[in-house]
Amino acid sequence: MDALSSGDCKTNSCSSPPAPQPQPNSTNKGPVPARVSELNAVRALGESVSQDWATRQNLCRNLCSKCLAYQDAAVDNRSHLHLINLEQLQMSDCEFCDVLCRAIHWSGIVRDSGDVPYLWVGKGSLEIAIQGCSDGLSPVVQLCCEPELPSPGSPETIRQIFEWISHCKQTHSLCDVQDPNFMPTRLIDLGPSNDAIRLIETDSKIQASYVCLSHCWGGKTPLTTKVDNLQMHLQSIGWHEIPQTFRDAICYTRLLRIRYIWIDSLCIIQDSPDDWSTESKMMGQVYSNAYLTLGAVTAPDSSTGMFNMSSSFGLHSKRKITGITIAGFPYLYNVYKRPNHDHLHPAGWRSYDDRESFPLLGRAWAFQERIMSPRFLHIGHPELRWECKETVLCECGDIDQLSIKMTWVNVLESSSAFQLEKARRDLVEAYSRLSLTYEGDKLPAFSGLAKQACRASPSSEYLAGLFRGSLIVDMLWMNRRRDTNLYRCDLKHWRAPTWSWASLDAFVVFPLSSYSHIDGEEPERSSLLKAYIEIIEAKCTTSTSDPTGSVSDGFIILRGPVFDCSIRDGKLCRVSAHQDIPVDGELYLDRPEHALQGQ
């Protein structure tokens, strides 16, 4: 089978790993088309040079000492090298300095006399950026040689994925599935050959590896399994019915020689409340025991395919710089100017705040899907990214920091109670930024991560997103969105008690998260925060059998001092406290818009 081709697309001339051959007694209903990703646009990140620096040294004999240092650094790991002196660059006889000078002049990256450019040398790429510019307004200039990186559906990319998987399996003990005996209730069977795809019920009789798909439903409802078509899907799912994103995921799964894939819209009976309740509470297990999760990060819905190129992120312009070296060899550099862009850094979702370019990473359900999966492959424009429990990689080689997933895994493996509490609150802060189609999913979409936290704190009761053992600090959250014209957080229906962050659709933060009031737990911190309240009782009633799922009611009883205060325009103007000493303060409302309405 050619690498990821489609019945509507031309076949890629490069071959991929062969598809399994049909069994003698199988009923072959015709080949399932694969898909070739015909990506003509150059990807902004991940450009690679066709010749390494050692080869180019033979072409460019007249290099200055700094460019020779760049050459040495590029062969090893990435390095943040020296600032560029424009005056020296213009006066240099170095051939590569001339390339840099022409690239800077053409791109217009230097906007005023205060801008200081620097050269970033990565393994296989060169970038010029402005020092200290993080607002995304200044473009980034990238230099590379022909050819461009292969598309996400090419044989070269498939080989890269195999290399990442092989390295992970051989060296990462943390990335093993949690429960090898677990199997989802239903899976999509791709068959031993190109037979028709069908839904199967495992009934604990099948023990095999499976792949998961993490995707956006978007405004278009994808192909779903319902009560009235369940039996039909158990017989066969026609290729013509399957949307493009699902097709791409199926093709990737087959190329990885995996027979089964789990897709939520097909493996959960969508119009059965009982089935949805049962399956949703197992979502964490489904993803944590998957061989690999494919993330369609740039696809806004199931119809666009995993290689969606419609995102606003991309190259604004391109220019070729050519010349002849002193040795008489021609050279060519493609120079690209693109918007500034962050990689996947420790803040996790924050570096993907452009929801238009990476719609999946703005979805709440995808948060735990990504973190709980042992291996998560980000597929789409501009490049592939690999994220497992022990490393984060990308095609351009420009990532070397911990992700939020790795931080969480490390905390669960071996951390103090205080570190675990802070990590839980960090997860909530990141999760609260994300969007839900159904507001009632706020706690269910966090349920898998909550179960992991509960296992790490077995003696602490879970209360609608908070924990009894750290409840005083957990309740000290606030709605960060102060501008009521930009953000309204009222819900149509009650979802959680008001002391829970889950009661709002708001970006919440825990300003005192770094402090602890636990006696004997990191005493140098416990002395910094003193609690003046006592929790008498706290209780939540779950609305399903899932202990970390939705709640139907909840209450809390506290004992502590009460102060009279005056409020003006959201400010505590006077507080009557002990000895009647006036104190100024600031009031943080959960629903700032209520202050404008006199509520």
UniProtKB/TrEMBL annotation:
Residue segments, region Disordered: 1-33
Pfam families for this protein: HET
Heterokaryon incompatibility domain span: 210-369
InterPro entries: HET (IPR010730)
Name by which UniProt lists this protein: Heterokaryon incompatibility domain-containing protein
